[in-house]
Amino acid sequence: MSVGHIEMPALLELDEDCPTREVLDRVGDKWSVLVIVLLGQRVHRFNELHRAVEGISQRMLTLTVRALERDGLVKRTVYATVPPRVDYELTELGETLLVPLGALSAWANAHRGDIQAAREEHDRKSHQA
Questions:
Q1: 30-46, pLDDT tens digit by residue?
Q2: Residue 14 vs residues 18, 20, 62, 71, 76: alpha-carbon distances, Å
């Protein structure tokens, strides 16, 4: 496949068994990405994650870390203390996501103005029609 002047392999297949599609289903939502980035900085407790991820409910954070744990991206460690202490950290597999997420973040920052200008142009044309 050719994208502009860059030759690259097909990024996505259309069938349900596509591994890229499976991964995007997991990390494509805003909560998972934010949790992965935070855990890439250091180990966090649940309440630290909850405070750091603005707008996420406790239930959604619970579902997000459970799904990331199930996929082998996050490790959950429970300590037998009163009250119980639970730490979350990235696994080695989860850490490998930091490079592509960093690249995506760099791309978004580099093209933020371009995207905003395109949106304004689109909206201007839509209102003229």
A1: 899 999 999 999 999 99
A2: 7, 10, 30, 22, 33
| Integer CA distances (angstroms), 32 to 19, 37, 62, 92, 114, in order | 17, 9, 11, 16, 26
Q: What number of CA atoms fall less than 13 Å from residue 78's CA on the CB side? A: 4
Write the CB contacts of 76 (distance below 8 Å, at least 6 apart in sequence): 65, 69, 86, 87, 88
Domains in the chain, start-ordered, CATH in brackets? 2-96 (1.10.10.10)
pTM, rounded to two decimals? 0.77
The whole-angstrom separation of Cα 42 and Cα 89 is: 7
Q: Are 48 and 61 in contact (CB under 8 A)?
A: no
* 120 SS3 class: helix
d(Cα 48, Cα 116) in Å, to the nearest integer?
32
Neighbours of 53 (CB within 10 A): 19
